[in-house]
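dude i think i finally got it to work??
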Amino acid sequence: MNKTEDISDAELVIRYKSGDRKVLVILVGRWHKKFCKHAFWYTKNAELSKDITQDSWAVIIDKLPLLKQNDKFGNWGLSIVMRKAIDSLHEQNKYRKLDSFSEVKLIEEEKVNATSCHKLILKEIKNLPNEQQTVLKLFYLEGYKIHQIAEILSIANGTVKSRLFTAREKLKSTLKHKNYER
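look at this
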């Protein structure tokens, strides 16, 4: 038998769909921590993130037999976590906006004596619309490709590209205006 790390997510999903419930332990082991981090990115609350991840796993397990593209398990799971996190934030405060690059991030940057340019970029990112912040985070911080971001957010590739371009242009304009352009 293969080592568990040699088995693809797609194969595990297929085995789960055919009745092998034990493979769920492997999927949870692979993805739980990443799902928690993804939820935390939205909520900035460790306990709430754990609750969201648990709720997400309930949905994932319930809907897993309906997953059509077995090789897309990770992106599919991340999109469920994202939606649960957003729903949770809306429940807490209907008028609260998602703060993707929160004060916590700015405080951390100040603690390590970040340069004024770096601080300005973070501040300007925080001023971008939430959709652009999310795409920037997934592309630059999480390392996802355009098509993966499109799948996670359930939008077209072109929309992802447009949001990235617009966000970059706004940041470039700000830096040029503040004389930080190189």
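The two ends are 55 Å apart (CA to CA).
im so relieved honestly
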